[in-house]
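TL;DR need structure tokens for one chain.
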Amino acid sequence: MFTRRRFVKVASAAPLLAARSFGQGFLSALPSHPNFLVILTDDLGFGDVGFTGSRIKTPNLDKLAAAGAQFSQFYAGNPVCSPSRAAFLTGRYPTRMGIPNVLYANDTYGLPTTETTIPEVLKPAGYVSACIGKWHLGSLHEFLPTNRGFDTFYGVPYSNDMRPLPLMHDLTVMEPDTDNDLLTQKYTNAAVQFIKANQNRPFFLYLAHNVPHVPVGASPAFKGKSDLGLYADAVEEMDWSVGQVMQALNDAGISGNTLSVFTSDNGPWFQGSAGRFRGRKGQTYEGGVREPFVAYMPGVITAGTAPAGFGSLMDLLPTFAGLANASLPKLPLDGIDIWPMMTGNQSSLEREALLYFDSWNLQCARVGPWKLHVARYNSYPWVEAPSEGRVNLPLPKPELYNIESDPEESYECGEAHPEVVKDIQGRILTALASFPAQVQTAWAATQARQTQPFSTGAVPAPQ
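>> reply
TL;DR here they are.
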């Protein structure tokens, strides 16, 4: 209900909102309480969609990318799913809240109630919120979406490789072990119904697909359709879902009143493509954390906008709060408001160093075009650990890469830019002081380990 109190609140926000949309030429003014739609995929690589060069057919996403803002440098909250989702919903590093790793079905902890989520930020501004799809931030009732700010939940509580996989509606189990192949269809239908039911009030819809996480699933209508295997079939069905949801917005006449965002929680596992980037899921190389990203709002975001700067999943909470004129959480955020980049009013934004964690361990930091690697595990993720165990080691010599000119992280250039290395190292130490004890303990343990320096001498001939 649009009460007098809400009318006064909206009216008082109008000058601020008009100022935010200044400079967009003949584009329409920004709505006072826009809807927010976030479509988050699971383990989708940067190179797995048509608009980044994939052979997989994604016409609906390609259309959105052409008609909206496409970021070529957008980062997941973490290289694995639970921490990345925690970062998205809170605007904070997951290591700040004790979610450094993947949560499992029998874990007895989840997203802490001390953290403020996007739906909790938006609720005082009159928003209704739905989580449809994969949750994976705690499977006990107190951690499920309806106890973390969402008004409704339809989906699964954790990853689809954890069985049995219950399909839930709010706190009720509808199917004790649901059919993984049919989840994209079910999520899509639920999302369309939510849009129809709430088209006359501001809403936040979080549509979290399970695909293309293993076991890869696709409905009978899409199995074999791509001619590129089941992984591509699943991605093409996900793209179909995007088309259905966007059509629902158009049919309701609210497409221009909705900021629609598409991205992924981390890079690809053993299938899928990270594009030109080094690394995959579970790694802090670009391939593990750089994701396709589109922001679409016809009449407000200029078609073809392509910011030069970078953004993060942590940036969505402050961006949404700003657009909804909602109060920010009391706990300090690590994300920033990237609306000026989405609209093309600013190509890049100043921000603190963007930190890359693997579990509790800080491994890299990004400042401007520079990325500094300071530590790395002694084995790749998802493979058997060495006999001494999988441990994080300090690099004998920090590795500096210019990510804008060398996104493949192929050419280390620390010797040519010692001042950049020193600056980022200083920023890391300053930032770590604000993190919990587990992070600082992990950092100290990493620094205490011995590693063999690189040899610059001649390599002896084999005997």
